[in-house]
Amino acid sequence: MDIGISEADRKKIAEGLSALLADSYALYLMTHNFHWNVTGPQFNSLHAMFMDQYTEQWNALDVIAERIRALGFPAPGTYKEFAKLGSIQEVDGVPKADEMVRLLVAAQEATARTARKLIPTVDAANDQPTMDLLTTRLDIHEKTAWMLRSLLEE
């Protein structure tokens, strides 16, 4: 494979993207779970908001996995691999609506940190497609975290 990025750099980038994929999948699953289980006075707005968020997140999973493949490496795709690679812990039980929002803020921010951590490696390798992917993901995660945080302000 000769796309102008060394194998060692492609491997480092694929490893970073694999961590991003793991966090993105955990975030997707958490958001979908909360969509199904939210209750209370904010039900309608949170139910709809969570659906928009998990749908966006679901579509992002393919983009991240396909970039890993384009770099010449297998994409992780099992819960076991995601648990090993990710930084987001599963939530036990069904939290109250405000706690769901707090947990999603933390998960959005964690996913943004995972993406941001990869930027120096991607920049050094001159990998513009991955940089575009990371920039897009950061924009979405930071904006979503802000919108969720706004729900918690009094």
Q: What layout of secondary structure does this protein have?
A:
Layout: H1 7-37, H2 43-70, H3 79-85, H4 97-124, H5 128-152
CATH homologous superfamily title: Ferritin, core subunit, four-helix bundle
Instruction: Name the poorly predicted regions.
Output: none
CATH architecture: Up-down Bundle
Number of helices: 5
Provide an overview of this structure:
With 154 residues, this protein is mostly helical. It has one domain (7-152): Ferritin (Up-down Bundle), CATH 1.20.1260. It contains 5 helices and no strands. The chain has helices at residues 7-37, 43-70, 79-85, 97-124, 128-152. Helix 2 (43-70) packs antiparallel against helix 5 (128-152). It is elongated. It starts with 6 loop residues before the first helix and ends with a helix. The model has no long low-confidence stretch (mean pLDDT 97).
Using brief descriptors, characterize the structure shown.
single chain; 154 residues; mainly alpha; Ferritin; ferric iron binding; oxidoreductase activity, acting on metal ions; DNA binding
Short description:
With 154 residues, the chain is mainly alpha-helical. It contains 5 helices and no strands. The longest helix has 31 residues, at 7-37.
